[in-house]
Amino acid sequence: MKISKRILVLILIVAIALGAAGTYAGLAFFASGSSSDSGISSDDQNLLSQLSEQQQSLEENMGKMSKVVDAFSIIQENYVEEVDDQQLVEGAINGMLESLEDPYSVYMDQETMEQFNEQIEASFEGIGAEVSMVDGNVTIVSPIKDSPAEKAGLKPNDQILSVDGESVEGLDLYEAVNKIRGEKGSEVVLEVSRPGVDDPLEIEITRDSIPLETVYSETKEVNGKTIGVIELTSFSENTATDFKKALTNLEDKGMDGLVIDLRGNPGGLLPEVEEILKNFIPSDKPYLQIEDPSGKKTRYFSELESAKGYPIVSVIDGGSASASEILVGALNEAMDYDIVGEKSFGKGTVQQTVSMGDGSTIKITRFKWLTPDGNWIHEKGIEPTVEQKMPDYYYTNPMQLEEPLSYNQSDDQIENVQIMLEGLGYEPERTDGYFNEATKSAVEAFQSDQDLDVTGEVDQKTAEVLQTSIVEKIRDGQDDKQLEKALEIVSQ
């Protein structure tokens, strides 16, 4: 009996190895999955060659796996209840990947892969946020533009503690994601820990269909010049093609400069950002370096003869990650173009997916990506050349109040209210958290304008309307100091 089980496990391991050698595919993981760049240029044969070499060393690896096979047999023959063979094998795979302590190297079973494939279609249903596992915590990388997550006020680096009252502690990323996702129209309540906020926040979100349009463009007239603005929300299968169309359209209009807005862009497909960079980086300069597991570095070049004749500025924030950082890093180091905003997320690795032959997949970190000058920004991020924060009200937080906030109190949430009121044009006179007479008058004026009960106190209803008003103002692009600064620089 023991021999047959050992043979079974060996057969499964061999099948995994053969599947890895023969079915390489590069995919993107974004939206409600993990932050990643998956795949390298389609003509790159290095991986296939390396996997072939791995297949040749299969017999040597079998010897190293004997302890795993013994554990499999011991559990099967001695555990008090019947155990499914596949369950044990998948548990072993998950355990090996978890031991890497790399949030981007994960195993996706058949069900997870089906959901993954759905996510790379034209749209999917959920809250619309890129998430990753950071230090063991399910963390928001960035909400998707115009998604329920963005409208509800989720922000980069928010850590999700629970979903509908159920803790996500101990769950892997995909188990947590499955709890967060759901049908259009259904509601989910996330308990969120936000950096700089003492108490957890409860954020209620109504799920919706999430379109995956990734390129938005417009023109701005600044200082007598026509400036093109292209916003990229992620890098999916058609992003480079859509970007090229938008760029050509803006150039046909005779634009004098270009702003590329990458705020809140969590990354996506590496080949897409490569194609975009080939529009800007001349052939005499690398736009990217890739470092393989052996430390060998390969530089990548375009076939572009000359640079654009107009200035270019990029805009980033803490939600700009991965492929976004590749783009801004290349434009800055290769072309000395300015970067406006705040420090980016800091993801400098490349993932690739390897089919296991049964519908399941391993997504594993295979490479480091480096800037044109060879810098690795992983867990460091990219610093802007021109630092520019947004107005204070952009950084305010949702509130859950057990008791109303009122005159003569002091509290961090009162400071939050004062900043919101000031951002909406009311005059609390101070933003230090002390509820003075001017704050009371500002609250009363706001309540009157919003047809709320005019009490001068901030109850939960007033707090919710305040937050909604702030979110609407932010979404309307008012007081966008970062974009304004980028437009100012590119129009000089």
Please outline what is shown here:
The protein has 492 residues and is of the alpha+beta class. The protein has 15 helices and 20 strands. The strands form four sheets. Strands 1, 2, 14, 15, 18 and 19 form a six-stranded antiparallel sheet that branches. Strands 4, 5, 6, 7, 8 and 9 form a six-stranded antiparallel sheet that branches.
What structural class should be given to the helix and strand makeup?
A: alpha+beta
Total helix count?
15
- Let me know the largest β-sheet: 6 strands, antiparallel
Proportion in helices: 25-40%
Count of distinct strands: 20
Structure keywords:
single chain, 492 residues, alpha+beta, six-stranded antiparallel sheet, 15 helices, 36% helix, 21% strand, flat, disordered N terminus
